[in-house]
Amino acid sequence: MLVAGAAALSFVSCDEFEPVFTGKYAEPEATRTYTKAEIEAEGIEFISIGELKQMYYDNGSMPLNIKEDIAVAGQVTTSDEEGNFYRSFYIQDETSGIEIKIGLTGLYNEYKLGQWVYVKLNGLTLGDYHGSLQVGYEDFTGEYETAYMGVRFLVEAHVLKGEPGQPLSPIEITADRMTDEELIGKYVVIRDVTYTNTLFCLAYVDPNLNHKDQSNRIFLDEDNKKAWGVITWAMSDTKFEEYLDAGNFDTATTGDNAHTVAELRAQGRIGTTAYSVTQYFEADGQTVGVRTSGYSKFSDHEILKEVRDGSATVDFTGILTLYDDEPQITLIDETGIHVNNDEV
Amino acid sequence: MYRKLLAILFAAIFAFPAFAQENKGGVEGTVVNRNGRVPVPDAAITLYRGETVVQQSQAGSDGYFSFGNLPDGIYRMTVESPGFERSVVNVTVEGFMKDLMFVSLVATEALAIDIDDSNFAEFDMIDSGYDDAPSIIYGNDVYSNIAGYGFSQIRFRQRGYDSRTQDVYLSGVRLNDALTGYTPWSLWSGLNEATRNKEIENGLDMSGYGVGGYNGVTNIFATPSTMRKGYRFSVLTNSAFYRLRLMGSYATGEMDNGWSFAVNVSARIGGNDWVEGMYYRAFAYYLGAEKNWYDTHRLSLAIFGSPVQRGAQNGSTQEVYDLVGSNYYNSNWGYQNGKVRNARVRNNHEPVAVLKYSWTPDDRLGLDVTAIYRTGRNGYSALDWYDAPDPRPDYYRNLPSYFYNPESNMSNRDDPYLAGWAEEAWIYNYNNTQHINWDRLYNVNRNNIDAEYDPELKRSKYIQEERRTDQNDLNLNAQVKYRFDRWFTLKGGVNYRLNRTQYYKIVKDLLGGDYYVNIDQFAERDFAMEEEKIQNDLQYYLINGHAEMLQKGDRYGYDYTANVHDARLWADLDFEHGNWKAYLAAQGGYNTFWRFGNVQKGLFPDNSYGKSDVAGFFTWRAKAGATYINGPHRVWANVGYYNDAPYFASSFVSPRTRNSLTPNLTTEKTFSADLSYAFNKNGYSVRVTGFYSNISDQTDLMSFYDDSQNSFTNFAMTGIGQRHAGVELGFKVPVPVQGLSVVGALNWGDYIYTTTPHVIQTVDNNGEIVMDATVPYWKAHNIYQKDAAGNYVTDASGEYVVSKVQKHYVPSTPQIAASLGLDYSFNYLFAGIELQYFDKMYLDMNPLYRTDMAVMGPDVRWTPEEEEYMAAQERFPHAFVLSANIGKSWYIQRKYNIGFSLEVRNILNNRSVKTGGYEQTRLIDSEDFTRYYRFDSRYFYMVGVNYMLNIYFRF
User: pLDDT, tens digit, for every residue of A266-297?
Assistant: First the structure.
């Protein structure tokens, strides 16, 4: 019996038993970080973000698939925790800032504000999106100039984590500098802007159907010069439904002008979803849009009454972007909104 | 006083010669299983004088037989019963009724293979919404001897029925789980010796412990006096489930002082050769004591338990299996500091105590009173995460198919280069793509400071949770048996069950962090602004101003108690005379249950804390049957009708979050009938059965995590109906070589869905009802006619022409299962080889794909292609499996028995046999917005060639 038992035990490898018996797992080590020197040792040359952006214009303002062994180094300036940024982050060095289209969610868990990041550019694509440059992967469909990287292995092969760092302070800018190429993509603060009571939002009759179909589109656009009663920064699904049911959008029409929202709403044909909204502010005659995603956690926060009635100005801190020649600020979270009223 | 004695003496002396002259001799006795004194019913007994058959009889259902009016002399008596070795006994008749007491039969179970729940891989199905409850079929006749163990590797279900319908009794008390109805095998997992003695009935056959169901009754005696006296030890190693099993038992048998004691312990440890991450760390114990007073009163107490830890296996899509190069890939584990760590581990310890009192003042009356109490903990761990990337390696966004699909109309799957990167990462396992990256999870946790809760402590984003179902189950049972007439026996009983189960989850491991926060992250996506709505424990929040910062061991998420009360009263009238037996039985009862929420959920503040509405149902059932026995022939039939209450676990729309009962709850109604014929003589054995059942008004609840809704979503289905019909055949035919027989079994079934059920879909983070509709394509879908060019044909009125109505089948079991083999058994050497064939196996369906919404697509237009694509049910290819076994037993000094058995299954190493799986419940959009696409299904495969070697020693 004992012999049999011993023989049976010999079939077993100890590996199989250990965690089973002890139930104890040793704590893993810290994740590996890289240094600039290590990367340069591979024969990769670092350029500045400003130089990188110039490469796009030198390419005739066409998407550029980078084949050289170059890299950029920058610190992370955005976080997707609040949901206003999604699947990407911005990095910034002294020269400029640029969006890296990672394509994964929950990035703030691993890339904290101020984190040094080294992006090996060979194999990635540099492209433009309505006036702002981005680094991503080649877009096979050709619909956009760059695609999100999306595959973790691809990301980890190109985007390397350096040392953690301190979150950067925003750069003070004035309205006249908002279209400067070197500031686009950087973390800035613009002060004393006033609300124009206008906004832009593109909604759909049925969000599940074709977004490009004019009959399915509802423009809440600035031509009508009003805010449509949308007093929040953006609209979540439930918030949109609230405004819709209150009749805020009734006078809007579909993109082909065939129907009004009032008509379609009466027929129960309007589906609801969250919508991004660009609220327009102005400073020194320059319009600046504050674009907020409907999926962000603060989308349903109201714009303070004093702001809406013009009695208070706002300081915005966020990433400066350009959308079709129009400067925009994208907030990271609500701390980026500072209302200049007497209660500071 | 002396006068009386003298009178008796005279009478006796004078009577005696008369007896001798009138052939007043006879023999009587009880046929029992040698393995404990368990009666063997209906054994065929033949008395020979030389070569002449003098008398033939059938033992009763209690094993009792008697032959009377025999002339004095020596007779040869043969006793046969299917599943046992033929026994031959010489009997001397001496003018009086000789009581042989017990005539023992030895089971022909050559393998001593113990089939218990550890013969089945633990499948991780909980988050899928589907059920995984394999059936265990014990053999008691020529069909189930083969089908029971032989078909277990393909997870065969007897007659296609859910395992809930299989009644499992312990000491005469039905012990199926009070909340789900599932068979309770795991309670005595590893106690093969203590539970070896059982009575088994198939189909609708009666058991003597109640009316019974329609899918068999297995009653495990579990009292010490039924355990075979002596010591038994065994060492077992196998390559499919656990590396090593050590088992020991000792039973005193019934001693002269009336006491019996028994003890059984075992350990099952280790992994296996096929599925990484699946492992056992299981122990089991049984202790029993029993006292018998004058064969009239019997009292026994048994306490047993199985503390088990086992790692689960997940099913993946075929894409993943192909990338990894193995159908046994398990996505539940990853390396932590180089060691395999499985995220999904069962950790159970649910001890049971059985107290039984029997009173048998004479052979006509019997009373049993039994109390069974079950308690303990049942935990199943899993990963939980908050606002962080999904840690599961085979999450669909990590797969190549998320980036590219050759079907160009599939939305956003157009980049073959990104797919290529993903494919390479999977094939070569770069950066641990194939497994859970425990190291990354720890690092994320360590680097996460959330000043909103604490400026210094680390807030975990990933933890390991453990979901608990802790039961307190009390069963009180009393049963009477009274043979009030030579022909009639009346049995009756009453049963009361009280169950109170706590459902909750705890933080099992903080994975390197200091605390986890008790909020509903699914609710947070929609109600980020409304702090109250995202609370799992609203009362804590209102008192403390924030959600709880959880430590290891703290309860969180959900916390509710299930209360089930069930009372039954039954009666059974048995008739037995000559060649006929018949019975009529009925049961009535009341079943009631409710949920009690122990936390107030922010999303449902008015409907989560406290007592829910109470659901109550009158339950009843009735059964009747008859048997005719003539020599070796036996014909019997049963018919029954059942009206059963739905189970707690399927009766609430979203039991984790609120007290809402599923609307339109009703009892499940079943009509069932079977007809059988059996023949047993001279080593030939045949049994054939035809069966039919119609089940209606079934209720089911499936809960899935749907990340397109960012929440758990629930499908509460009502009005499900099924029809099962088929034939079972088992045979054993001796061959002119001594000890050799041809054995075979066949199950030919047709189990289909018969109704259009109703489904209510809710989403956990939202009180609203997402869908309240019928499932029109559940029971069938149409195949439409096409012309030679492949276009659909329309008729004169413009309707598409239906070429066939494709039925949908009951899944997760082969509806056709066949086995053919050779069995050799001679002189304690056993060997066998069998070839099995399985076919008509179907994949578990999800209701979503069979609703109008999914079939018609976002444009709400039906097309025949959409119906044929979306509603189709996958059928698995047929499979052949070859297995063989050998064993030998030696007796040393007539007392010590040592032996071994070796079995090799799936000798042909067939690694493409699907044993089950499920459809995923997500839809993929199309570029042209006209239709949806399905997600890939997930599968489980039968392991390839595997062996089991058992060495045992008994004395």
Answer: 998 899 899 999 999 998 889 999 999 999 99
